[in-house]
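Aim 2, interim progress: modelling of the flavin-adenine dinucleotide-bound target.
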Amino acid sequence: MNHDDLTGRLDTLVIGGGQAGLAIGFYLKEQERNFLILDANQRIGDAWRKRWDSLRLFTPAKYDGLPGAPFPGDPLSFPSKDALAAYLEGYAARFDLPVQTGVPVERLWRDGDRYIVNSGGNRWEARNVVVATGSTQVPEVPSFAGELADSVVQLHSSQYRNPGQLQEGPVLVVGMGNSGAEIAIEVSRTLHTTQVAGRPAGEIPVKHGRTAARYAFPVVRFLGLHVLTLGTPIGRKVVPALKAHAEPLVRTKTKDLAAAGVQVVPRVTGVADGMPVVADGTRLEVSNVIWCTGFREEFSWIDPALLDAGAMPRQWRGVALDSPGLFFLGQRFLYAEVSDTLPGLGRDARYLASKIPVPVTRGSAVAAT
Ligand code: FAD
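Predicted structure of the complex, ligand included:
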């Protein structure tokens, strides 16, 4: 099928063809719907390809598969980001999912009983829209980053690929989440004096690896999938607090940082004379800064009338509360602690697919809308 022909009027449009968009595509295909997935990237899997070179998933392969296609190979291994990207590309091909790449959606709004989507000169109309644009679209950097001296090389973790991007001299990694801890270790191995600023939001108390994949991950996954959800009293109590915090360290622990000679310093609170200053007032003379300060979800391309006062989705479990036919998938804590990860999004996708209204047809499963 030539997917480029799928323009104009559709039953369902999925915006974002990362793992979340592909997972719901699987169910839409199963339902024989008239649908299309639009993605801004040039190639399926690019969201993963663009991450740093040495990145391996922290989730074992046995939990990294999407609906209908287990991740190939050793189930207790931790795939590289490129292996995951290749898997996603193969997944779309295997199920013949209609994906158009290189299409950044610029506007989404509602007109009567349809949604209108615009990208460049192109326009699509659909009765239903699933927003699956991920939770890592906008890198977060403190406002004072712009005050760093021009001589300092600064990168966000989303721009970091390998230590070759850095110049000679000390490196400050800001933020001690999983990205910060892993990048700090990698950078310290290339003879850079490395400091990491901040405190982790806890550590998973088991050593990461095959044994954890076999025994601990099933427990963690069960908790994240079935206990810490918006459907349980404990989940409703704990999830808002979890949402406000970074994830605990999973693979790289503070003792690994110490062993690698990475110095932990307090939070960065500002910049003085072009150099970062930490909470105890110390000014650090550095040549490189890597901001591992996270991401924010942003929906500025969606008509504010379809969002809440804070420009965020008004939804429960991904179903928009007062915009029939609008759905969200893949956001942090959409329903469960693992909603934005591979072990969690298949279930959310299946649930959403069951909520997308079935078109009224005459003698066919698919409505010609
Ligand atoms: P994305 O993969 O970000 O895909 C969203 C897609 O939407 C992109 O392809 C993008 O091009 C497209 N898009 C965005 N905006 C538009 C637009 N306006 N128009 C058209 N297309 C658009 N999870 C795990 O389960 N295991 C791990 O080990 C793991 N490791 C991670 C490591 C890092 C460093 C990070 C940052 C995240 C990790 N995650 C991991 C979390 C999560 O699985 C990923 O963030 C995942 O990529 C989210 O999938 P997604 O489909 O929701 O979003």
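The longest strand covers residues 122-131. Residues 15-21, 38-41, 47, 51, 55, 57-59, 103-105, 132-134, 136-137, 179, 301, 330, 340-343 surround flavin-adenine dinucleotide (CB under 6 Å).
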